Records
---
Amino acid sequence: MPAITRASLNRVDAAGVWFDCNDGFACRVTPVARNLFRVLFLRPGGLREPRTWSVCCGRAAGEESAAVATKSESESVAAKSAAEASSLAAEPAAAGVAIQVPFTDNLPRSPLLPSPYDPPWEGYDRLNIPFARVDCTVEQTTVALREQGTLPQSGSTVTEGAVPQAPAVVIRSSQLILTVRLEPFHLSWAVPSSTAPDSPAPGSTALDSGSTVFAEDRECCPFRFSDRSFAFDHAMKRCPPNAAAADAAHADAVGDAAGDAAGDTGSAGGSVSGAGTAPAAAGVEAAAAAGGDFFFGLGDKTGPLNLHSRRLAVGMRDALGFDPIQGDPLYKHWPLLMTRDGHTGVCYGQLYDSLADGADVDLGCEHSNYYGPYRVWRARDGDLDMYMGVGPGVREVVGTFSRLMTGGLGGGRGERGVGGVEERGVESGGGEVGGRGRVEGSGRVNEHRGQPPPLSPSSPALSVGPALIPRWTLGLHLTAMPLADAPDAQARISRFISAAHSTHMPVSAFHFGSGYTTIGKRRYVFHWNLAKFPDPQGLVGEMRSAGMRVVANVKPCMLVDHPRYGEVAADGGFVFSSGSPAAGAAERGGSGGGGGGGGGGGPGAGVAAGAGAEFLQNPRAAESPVSAEARPAAISQFWDGLGAHLDFTNPRTIAWWQANMQRALLDTGIEAAWNDNNEYEIWEEDAYSHMFGRSEPLFLHRPIHALLMTRASFEQQVRAEPGRRAYAVTRAGSFGIQRYAQTWSGDNSTSWKSLRYSNTHVQSICVFCHIMIAQYECIHMALTLFFLVFFLSSVPNPPPSVSHYPLLSFFATPRSPQNPSSPPPPSPLSSRPSPFLHPIPPLLEITRWNLRLGLCLSLSGLFNCGHDIGGFSGPPPEPELLVRWVQAGLLHPRFLMNSWKPDGTITCPWMYPESIPAVRWSVRLRYRLIPYLYSLSFRSSFFHEPIIRPTFYDFPEDGRCWRDGDELMVGPMLLAAPVVERGARQRKLYLPSQKPGQPEGWFDFYSEEFFLSGQVVIVAAPLDRVPLFVRAGGIVAMSESTVDFSGLHDEGSRVLRVFPPPVGPAAAVGGAASSSAAAAAAAAAAAASAPTASTAATAGAGGEGGESQWVLYEDDGETLKGDRAEVHVHMRWDAQKVVVTVSLVHVQGESGGESEGERGGAIKAESEGVSQGESGDSSREESGRGGGYRVPWETLKVALPAADTRELEIRWGGGGGGNGGSKVVNNQGQVVRVEKGAFVWHSL
């Protein structure tokens, strides 16, 4: 394919910086935010995709945001006119010009649009997206050609010994620097060195002394566009993994494995590596950097989080039973790649805004002798429209692209339910704790003491974002296809409700499978089978009386014999086949707009003055709509028949869908739509969509149908109940679905491999044997090892003498620490003996799991996600697997059991009587954690923070966190280590450290034992517990009730569990790992008094004390614009005392007068209680001044770890509360009190 080899600066105007390229191409660079630039290439024939839905500006048309100033006011100038910009090319090379890219929007408001803060239904004009203006400078200069093998500048001569120079244009904001080398054409991205996370590593480059290059194009031919099709490539340099660093990491893993196999001794429950020492993580950052680029994102990708050395497709498939290691693509079209640069540690992301089929990304599989290490983005069609955003950390880059996709960049005042957001005095980000630092919500650590910044959502700057979910969606949801498919479906579902009640299992929602729509065995959307469901409204009412909300499955395809197929076909409501005049014109016109510039070369060819008007011309825009008779529906296979897919780019189809959703579902009492099977697998090349009157080939925009289907469902729910938050679910989609819906990983399979996606141990041995044969030609050793392990796998427990043989003991079942001569007792839930009760060490293990897919979704901006607990397809889960699935699922925002089994088995909490207590305990733990999880959902919507995230999100400086592991963070406070291996009753995990050598620690969530950070520990993992740890300084809000769970997600009691670390001499709570009888007895006592997670004691954190804070968000969980309360908790500790200060802030919502569907709303925040620094009697009452929301509790208890003997002082609003507690009265007369208390666990 021909390459873009040279360019010249054309002009700088309100739309950005324009370049003319060879062969009639043009390139436009637009600053979107201080850390986010956009690069758009325009073909001579115009855009293939003239509209976009991928980004959201977050404000209404015509509403202009203030500029984000990056230079002094005197240096900023207005955007130059076209004439001034044209003369810029002739200015001296060293001249710097300040520009300001203003807000522009010429798009009319869509009549379908209920909120001015979403993109128009027909999408934004790709050349005229109404972003806020951003100040930046443009400077012409020269740069050195650093690499050999680059194309020489035409007409230039190279003198021996001289450094070749090339003309360049530098576009600079305060956070991002783009250098455009004009010939050979090349883009280089840098950050000011002051913002880079570390000093540049060897191999990194710098534009000047004040900047650090973190990404750049391949030196030769980085951009190539086909002259025979619409395909294109974009190749960039890649930092490959360093072999030495990889070997070192491998050696560490082997060392850990050897320690495990040798049977490390310790107190009851396991051991601690390096107990009593400072974290051995010094230098791990350099080791991680030497490991090469770390690639992540791309939506729902299987395999390890680091996507390096893989080739991955971008697209949507109905991927039933996908392989959790190599399955690709799955359900999401998500061309967002994020990278941690292997040289500098800078994190950045690239969003390729294209919905066209056929894109893939090669992240190191491909090599060429001519280019050096590179990676390449390839597309078979579409436009090259790339957004480059820099962090420089993971937290910032994830937040930046979430804002881009959901509207947080725009600065409009609108929002999805509860006022705007502001983080006063602190950047949004994670709560690192330690020493004298503090946890600032999920904010970054401050190394100084001072007034903790409030974290109240009260600024419109971050007002729109991922949908704020109703509180009830955090409870347990159940569904199963066999229930709705049964002939007596209504009776069976009634018995299902009774079973939940009789087993005392809390359930918040039931999801109807599509069986309610059947005629015979086939499914017909919006059709109720009244033979199976004689009284749908009565059944829904029965569920609501049991506390369950109801969700119904809907599908976008109508079988050709659907009773209402004819009326949709007559209205042209289906994706249609070509052959119509419109389709032919679209094919001849190049599918996407643009007429100007056809052919010729020269500066500015095809680029009009001003905003590039010629590229906005669409030859199909003036064509009259084609009659329904000329548009036969595109027929394709769908489930058990042939059907046609609804066209959600046709306003008449949207209206039909919403009307029938209201009639069939919402009028019946069903609250939400489960948008399923919306991958639109129509593979006929002649399939076309209406595209709001523009008739465009389906392969250019397939994912938009899933997005608009979900939006149509969401907005009809808002219309049906204007004052309430809507909840929607979608399986497929593209950028923007998180504005409307929750999603999940799709139709996974039931297996331990799917849970952890480490296959059986025999598979792992096969991998090792393959390596032995391929690398070392050790065929005999490989075969011997394989048969040896195969033999050991057939024996429930190896003979005692096996421990005397190192090779055999390497694979042997670990002995119980209390009685090393006998194995641990078998699980009462196992249906058969387990050959291993501990995983094979990392040398022979594929340490990856299906739950990484959830982390991948979350890092990609899909924060509200989860899995089908127990697995959707495949055999029924065994009892132990079911329990472990529930434990892993309770950590995710989406907590739902869904299954389809060939034998009709229904995966549900009570499917095995022997597992009910363990499942019920875990479900109740989920409900007790809802106050914490609901606050996390607030932060995800307002501050664009993932709810679940890998440990490197919160601990980027700990190089070990960048290794592939089995742990995850749930918000900034909780570290979870789900058990994902059959028979395992112990769990090895690494406790992250924020900075090497910084005194930090972790508390066991159950026993409240303290551990030093930076260590590998082995903890007990009984079948009824998921290992959890709380950061030192952590604050975890939970419900207090231990018996009555009838309140479900609305349970009103609250307890704040606070975990101040030990300080000074008291921190030495133990010593090195010990196997003494006293230590064992102490651990056994702790295990008996609390849920078990017993380990050896560790050295303490030391230091002089510290502080942390958190905000608990309280509201009614459903109102769209209602009042809320924020409980601001600040904790300070030293060696003698722990002081907890609680402030209650009322936030007043919109008081009416807003048109239907709008989400905007001014808010008013007022504090309750004593002013800061004022002391007072603990029994005094303060008059509330704020809003009228009544918190659901009257007493807020604060609980220290049971072993912490320090004085606990409670203060209200900064006043002296003493030890007797304090209380306050709000303006509705409600008395609330804060007092000391003990945390009590619920029973099985």
---
Amino acid sequence: MATVSYSYKETRLNLEPSSSSYIVDIELPTLTQGRGPRKSSRSAKAAAKNEVARATTSAIYYRKHHGFPKAFLWRILEDDTLFSIRTVDICKPKKASDANLILNFHFQNPIRPTCVALCDPSDHDALSVFILDTTDQLYSIFLRPDSFCKRSFVETGLGDSCKVSQPNAFRSNFKHPYRLLAINNDQLVATLSDGGHVLFDKNVGHNALQLPWKETFYNAKGWLRSIMKARGDLDITAAAAAVQTNLGLDTASFLFTVCLDHRLRIWNLKNGQILGALDLLNAARDPQETGKWQLDASQTNLIRIVGSTEGKRICVTYSPVGPGEFKFWMLESDDGNSVQVDDLFPDDQLIPTPPLGSDVWTLADFSVTERSATRGFRMWLLWKNNMAYRVQELTFLIEELPLAWQQRWRSVFSDTAVPTAQVSGPSDPTGPTEKWLELIFFPGRFPRATVEAALSAYEGAIGKPGSSSSRNSKGLAESICSAIASTSSLNKSSSGDMDHEQFRNSSEMQWRKFYRILLELDKPRGEALALSYEPETGMPWVICADSISAIRECSELEQIIHNPHATFEGSNEVPTLITSGINFIECFSDSMLQICHSVFRPEMFEESSKSDQERLQFVSDKAGFWRQITEEDAAQVTDALGQNFNLVTTRLYDRVLGTLNETWDSQYPTEYPLTELGRKIIVRAVQDLAELQWNICFSQLILLVHMEFEFDRPEDALHNRVEVGVIYRNLLIILKRLELVRWLASTQLTTTLPKADKSSSVSGGSPVAPKRQAEEHRVLTALEGNIGHLLELPELKAIPSDAMPRLITNIVADLCSPASNVQLVPQYIQCGLLVRDRADLAVELTPFCEQDSFSTYVQGRVYLALKDFTTAATYFKKAAFGMSTSHVHPERHSSGLLDETEWNLLFAGLPRYYAHIVALFEQQKAYSFVVDFARLALQFVHGTMGDVDKVRTEIQCRLFSGALATSQFELGHATVVAMRDRALQHSCLRALIQRMCDNLHNSELVNLTFPGLQGAVDDILAQHCTDTVDVITGVPYHQILYAWRIKRNDYRGAAAVLLDRIQKLRQLGEGDQVTGDDILDTAVTRQYLMLINVLSCVDPKQAWVTIEGPARPIRPNSSAVEELSKRKVVTLADIRKEYQDELDRIAAIQNDQFGFAADDEMEIL
């Protein structure tokens, strides 16, 4: 491995769930009272110390007998008292539910990290977990698939699913377990510290409750020496690693142990006999040098057994002594009672070569798997150096292993570059705060717990301790900004002006200080714990302390970038051009890169009438990057691409563009949708690949502009032999696609959880710790939310067994390609964002949208949701023609934004389209725009339309509502008059009168003509007068009706209104209240004067009115029957007499002339 060949790339994922509701905490019982209930978890202690909870031991278990869920990631945390398990399948059957729950089992006593074993019963679709704690209690946990899908399945209690027993072998410290293996659901093997082991067989007899396991002891030494080792010290024959196999024979069961004395021992588990023992490297050892070859007890990944041939297996062992060396053994058995072990390469030293560099690397784990009976084997190595790790891979046929060992190793590229925010300049539109927040809260980069720990550490460093409660109330981002802002202040410079530059530099320095703390806390999360490989899919994983890395194949472009000196398609031209572009812009400052990006942005999104040459000239002049190009920079490009860039051709650029435009069309039916973890892998890989492709495409655009104008003679110009314009446009198309993909992959959304995933109430007897139910949502990226349901894989049985790393890269590269099979339609994405009430995000996609009518309509919906009604109205009017023209088969896709009723109003003529727009503005209570568009709709209503009356009536109704809401009463009047539906017309008329009277628009109401509706108006006002009791403080309906009738020369009607008001004034007892300087000037006397004047305006013979019921107070000498007559005529003379009587009554009251009893008559003098 003289040169490193990178063929794979890792995609690191956080283990933070998308919702806290996915976490289920379960308290397990105990048989002892040694520790008692847990008073505080380690997570709380870690938070107090600004630490992040990290696993000490972790692995992935793959079920052999059943399907989804198949892969399970288990971790041990919190001082070895928490056993956490979750599913890590990438895909699932179409009808299967996501298994997103994380089960956290809390133990009362610490777990033995090496004594955790998992298996899947062949006769039950379940997972069995066996765990020994430090008090030697054996826990048997039985988990069904629903345990990871439905909270209710776990929250109802484990019941018989969890059993605790105390093996007799470990009582009184007689034996000490060292490792635990699960052979099957009914049989366990515990290796012991004295070199022996205990075989546990499940008891199915009548005493199974008292003795759940039958225990059988086997030891390589005599009983005396075994008892001597009962203290728990490790004997050199203790198994550092162990694996069980039956070599494909149903009646056999063998245990292979790699012991601390550097020997491989083979046990027959049927009878407990040792079938053989040999040195790990098949070498003769001097018994006096045992200590030289003794293994470290912490080295546990030393043996793997692979193969599928009956009676034959290949055993791979690793000796960490010295430089480290592998051995490949052939295991054979015919009868199941013996095993023949042969060294396949006795003359070859298979020593792995560590990663290049001066660092000291240690082989931490390895995996070997058989690809197929004819395709050979694949081997993965995990190297560690403190917190760093590297992965290598080798594919080989067993017969050519020595040659392949020397020449065919390939490496996994680990991106160790630390991202940082660009420096903010004085002309930068965004400040340092926005840039750093975008960097820190980039999806999948840092978990929330790590950021919170960094904030606590930073607050401690600046002497400003914060509390978690205040952070929860303000939000994490706001808390960070508050802490950093407290260290910087805006002061005045020596000239007396505000020193913004000093404030910006101070803020930048504090952000970098906080970011360094964050990186230091994040670094231990990436410590590798184990390497895992799934044989069925060929998916390798690196399991870290608080993350997991999926290993996928490199795309063509990634192979070029990570292997710059390798050839591509038989030459190095493509790598040379790509690396020249990247190297060329390395000399650019952050501000220059921002300027170039701002210049290219309108080139991507706006249609230009300029020629290609004019566009290139404009970019060159506007960006002005040539100012930062030195002679050395230009010479580097010339040295790489030749004089006058002779290496550059149109065909070469086509090949470069091809690497940026990889597509994938599966040759197998894709019927298996991705799980949430699978979607996260895709999103994280898209983030990495899109960023890489964007940088390359951006650098190629700048390099192309530079080469176009870098010539000595006009005939040497690049456009004379290269189609510069076509290449420029194609690069812009790719860059636009990548901009959209990057936005989708970096934008986070919050969605509600499906009902099945939500937490439910917990009964008092349940062992599940009650969860806080305030958070019932999950966080995901816009890419996952919009196209996650489209991402599917072929059935695993239909594809090669190791195709998963390639499939993931195919999907990711296809998503980044402009020619992708997955269409990223911006307007549809905007519709989905509007459904989620995220118009603030939807508006950011406006530049990506096309200019078709539906896109324009969606822009109107976006600005409508943002309350920018003027802009929304402009877009709706622009889209009117296209959205109203009839289509034979219109595409009805809007991500749920439009329902069936709304779709029926589109592509059905302008009236219905504008009616739909009117309804949208009405929902937003933008009534002025309701009026405008309702008028537009009525303009296009014509008699040839179907249901013309229904459409017109609906629009008129909305127009009337808008006019009423905006107090456009004349428009409301005109609309009511034009209505043809009499019932609706009368209802609207009543509403119009009510609104105008309530708002005291009395004179306007009286002056409106109401052709054909004057009688109805009079009736409505008369009814209001009849219903009115308080004629003083309420709406003056009597005065309005009086003015209405006077305006229309109905004097007798006006007189009747005044007569009714006089009666109600007397009933209220307000008739004697003096309203002027004269004591005879009361509300009643004034009404009498108005009444006399009105009746004086008509012919004397017509000066009378009729009244219903009693018109005056009942007199003592009159009969009640007469006074309550149905109808009575009152003449002008009667009214004058009543007026005079009223004046006399008031005068008598003022002179204290009134009776002392109810039946006394006043004596008028």
---
Amino acid sequence: MLSTRPYEFWMLRDVTIVPDNRHREAEGRSVVVVVKQLYEIQNEEIYKDKGVRLLQCRRVTGMLSNRYWPLSPDSITPGCDLFVGTRHLLVVLFVLVLLPCCQCITKDDLARLRAETTAVFYHGFDNYMTYAFPEDELKPVSCMPLTRDRDNPAHIELNDVLGNYSLTLIDSLSTLAILASSPLDARNGRSPLHDFQDGIKTLVELYGDGSDGPQGQGTRGRGFDFDSKVQVFETTIRGVGGLLSAHLFAAGDLPIRGYDPVTHSGSIKNAKHNHSRPAISWPNDFEYDGQLLRLARDLADRLLPAFYTATGLPYPRVNLRHGVPFYVNSPLNQDTDRGQCYPEELGPQEITETCSAGAGSLVLEFATLSRLTGDSRYEEAATNAFWAVWDKRSKLDLIGAGIDAETGEWVAPFSGIGAGIDSFFEYAFKSHILLSGSAPDYHVNATASEWDFLLVWLDAHAGIKRHLYRDAAYQHPHYILGDLNTGAVRAFWIDSLSAFYPGLLTLAGEVEEAIQTHMLYTALWSRYSALPERWSTASGNIDSGLNWWGGRPEFIESTWYLYRATQDPWYLHVGEMVISDIKRRCWTECGWAGLDDVRTGQLKDRMESFFLGETVKYLYLLFDPHHPLNNLDAPFVFTTEGHPMIIPESTRKSRNTKGDPPVDKEFGEITVTSTCPAPAPPLPFSISSIANRKDLFHAASLARLHLMPVLGQQTSIDSGHDYLSFAETVAASPNNYTYYPWTLPEAYLPAHGFTSKLESRVTFDLSFPPAKMPGSPLRVDRVDHGVMLNLVAGLRLSMIRERDHLYDMGYMDFFRIYSVSQLTLGRDEKVYVPLEAVLDLNPTDQYFTRRRDVTMIDIVIDEGEWPQHIDTEATTTMDANTSSLELELALVNGQADNPDLGANDQSILSMLMQQFTRALEKGQFPLTALVNAGIEIPSTPTIPPPTTRYVLPASVATGIGAGPIPDMPDASISILSPTDDPIAAAVDNLLYFRTIYMSDEMCNGKLAASIPRRHQVIIMRRGGCSFSDKLRNIPSFAPSATSLQLVIIVNFPSLENGGGAIRPLLDEPQLTPGGVPRFNQIPVVMVEGGEATWDALKKARSLGTRRRYWFESQGVRIGNLVVV
């Protein structure tokens, strides 16, 4: 419906147009402008037809509003014709309201961006080769090489990575191979293929060809025989991975457009004695016969000593020449005669802490190396390490950041998706892809099926989504850091490394989640013109002073994946923004520098090898949709260092049944539902679906983009602020938030522009007054699945309203207690409180209302022999902690693993089984109450012998034939120890239903008349006839304390229809065998567990019932508060 309120479309006035020949002219026609843009006003005309105010503008020469973004949700792109007139008015209004435009990226634009990206690469690569080669990295500000800090071995930021083996050249080779497929218009007169081949030739001249003979000696060394202590992970992904990927391109296993390897009688030695292929002759008089593969093997051999640990986790560091002498507990250092020893001159012993990513992200490189060489050691070492990490996961399927390689214990017990953990998830899923459909021609115990890796990813993603993911109710979807064991919030920061995760989600088919989370990183880049190393979602500022950007690729990587999956031009604009910012902020005369501070633009004198190896590579692939790798139908992957990897067809061996989808013991065959969806067509009258999303502003709001200064404001910014200042002199290249559509001032927004409303979280604190009388001190004890409170007096419960699948009740709104005083809880943790602790509270308090559960009760079962007489004179007072009568609480039929029980029941009973070794309550009932209930008191003082007390959940019958549950005192869930009053102890330990009759299905005739008169409980099987027919076969009886009180029906798995506790439906009034309506209807409950429950009930000597309660606040259930 169109509003009758006049529309006002605004122009930004008094703006200086800055000519900039790097940008195209605005292709001008008369257009309707609805938000601020850089246009001059000409012949302003006001059209009042239908109350619509229109402005005209003319073409200008200058920068076209940065062209990186859709200009606003209501903008009209220059070049779009709109004919303004009365008869077109409704069409215009319809388009203006519903058309969030995203500028088209033309073929010419893509060609320009490819050329720019190629130029960015060569500016860095040429300067590295000029000023830094053959050292590892370039100092682009100083125009000098960056080398290891041999004066400070503890400088691991450098020494972990720089191994003194021309790292940047190795890391850049696969990028050269990818650029070699570029169209001529993107090469800027260069030949990336020739540069690729020359780089390999130069590398071999320096380090040899990897053989044992004379050709293995290079001018710089024999292979990588250097006295360099490096990190195993970084050396694997950059060195080994870079060499292997370049080998696959050189050998023709990965595609290069126009590259046709010319071979002769030599051979590429993929292994010692097999998989040989002819050598390849290149125009630079070099014959490639697998030199890079052999060098990769040489480097990997030097890393293998780190894997000799008892846990299978590799030590974090290794010396390329000496191995691991600094780890004194290594098996290699235990034999001083034949092994290694630890010379004191090597310095202090090395720490043994590694990280999940470092230990578990080696499979892609090492498995590829093993498949190419036929040597199983590498794949076995890497897969052992991968599974060693995963085997240490918590019950929530979360893994921690730091782990000790010698003990296997977590050092940093928090979980997230960023630094220290990130690439483990990546390698879980990508190992599934890389190894799919192939098997090694060697036997390795550690080699797993590709399906095993997939299951790891599925479980890990489910754990992350459940415990670390924050949905739209938290302004915009993002991830937090949580406790490894509980999932409770530990920190609110996100780091630049975590920007890889949307790309992995996209690859795994979780595209919607990827789109949502990627938008936040896009907003952060727009704010800072880079990604700070760490940023807090809570404060909206850079966290802990980690304000640098070293040229990391993860955000660009995810952008590429999302564009490949969605084909949405939004992501091309994102890439255009990124490359422009890199050119604008990181350029130096000698290369590309990182940013030491993304707020001030201060440069860091280092060009990391991954900038050319990954960042530029993903940018180029983003802008070249027809690149061979963008259309390769094969199981290839990019490693975490951005190196393409594939198992060549020549070495692939078809799998046997080991490659079939696994069969899970509990769930049967695994079914994977996530697939890569086809790109969604844009909405009508639009180009970009992303630009049309109604939550577009939400990510910007979380990133605080709306608080950033706008163009034209000269603000004095001190170093304490987290946004980048800019001066008048740099107005030609303002920060992205100046133009970004999310940041338009309210005055410039159309009156009827809209976005979906930000979801709000309903949170509140509920504080209880302190106890009136001093008593037991408040205790909050950690138990399985949550915390146990002994009191609520003086507590503060912090709650949040959520919508989730609550137990067996389906999706519903409920309050979740996320904090008890200062203790933060995980999403699935429960708060257990004894009934006695809340009985004195007002049950009708609107903020803490007690409700009785009318659908479920607990059946308390004593299993054991009848009490024996004891000598009361010999009974002495015993402390409960020294009693020989231990409380044993168990769940029939497999404890908490019974899938037939609801999640609530499982958690409570599992907790009781494992934690309640002390009495939770005394449960003493007055003797008069028991006498009035018809329960005999033994004339001779007795106490029960050691016994087992079970607690079994039961669902209460429903329907017009359902009878009320007997109004008896709640049975105790604990067995009390003898005290100085043995009579009281004997009475307290009695359960009040002690005459039990085990029947069958009760469908083939009525019971004997004496049974309901002499038995308080009748137990029967489900099935054979209806519930009403079963009750009809119970004869009439006179109600008394010793007659029938309760019917328990045992359900069997074969009769289930959907899982969860099932309430018996009595859809007709209860009748006697003679067809007469019963005056006193028999209470009926049903328990799960099948034969195991039936057998346990056979052994029951007495039974009791216990009511269940829950609490509400303001009419909404408190979902994780459990009364026990």
